[in-house]
Amino acid sequence: MIQMEEINAEKKEENVKKDLSYILRILKDKGIKLTSQRKIILDTFLRLGGHVSVEEIFQEIRKKKKNVGLATVYRTFSLLKKVGLVSQREFGDGFSRFEIVSSHHDHLICQRCGKVIEFKDKRIEDIQEEIAEKFGFVLISHRHELIGICSDCRETL
């Protein structure tokens, strides 16, 4: 059974606050300075949700007329990646995208519009383990991305 979850606005706000608190606590515990700019960047990143590029985060911050430079956003994500709080992904659109490091999941990616859907399926995980075992591998990690055309884009074909 594929596990998917819709998150309503109230639940999303709750998740943003929880994730922001967690990230800020980790950074503080690691002795990393918590500047107002970093807090704005993190809050914007979490509110946008999903898989976002540094450029998208920067554009959203600029809409709010906040004084945060693009280089600061890049440096912040470099730091977050270094301490293991975000992972960087490439989905074939020319942009690096970031997501919070969380439980393992796979991706469906629309080749036309770039939409990314996260999903989990135990059957896929089991098959990957079987294949690795068959060839004498011990899996450390993997990336599973299914590329196609989403239902919205198919309607416009």
Nearest-angstrom radius of gyration?
A: 18 Å
Structural class: alpha+beta
CATH domain class of the largest domain: Mainly Alpha
Global geometry: globular
Q: Could you name the CATH homologous superfamily of the largest domain? A: Winged helix-like DNA-binding domain superfamily/Winged helix DNA-binding domain
CATH architecture term of the largest domain = Orthogonal Bundle
- Strands, count: 7
Low-confidence stretches: 1-7
Secondary-structure element series:
EHHEHHEEEEHEH
CATH topology of the largest domain: Arc Repressor Mutant, subunit A
Q: Helicity range of the residues?
A: 40-55%
Total domains: 2
What percent strand? 15-25%
Number of helices: 6
Q: Numbering strands along the chain, what is their spatial order in the largest sheet?
A: 1-6-5-7
Protein described:
With 157 residues, this protein is α+β, with helices and mostly antiparallel strands. The protein has two domains: 2-100, Arc Repressor Mutant, subunit A, CATH 1.10.10.10; 106-155, Ferric-uptake regulator, C-terminal dimerisarion domain (Dna Ligase, domain 1). Helices cover 48% and strands 18% of the residues. It is built from six helices and seven strands. The chain has helices at residues 9-29, 36-48, 54-63, 70-82, 122-134, 151-155; strands at 2-3, 52-53, 86-90, 96-100, 106-110, 116-121, 145-148. The protein has a four-stranded mixed beta sheet with strand order 1-6-5-7. It has a three-stranded antiparallel beta sheet with strand order 2-4-3. The protein is globular. Residues 1-7 have low confidence and may be disordered.
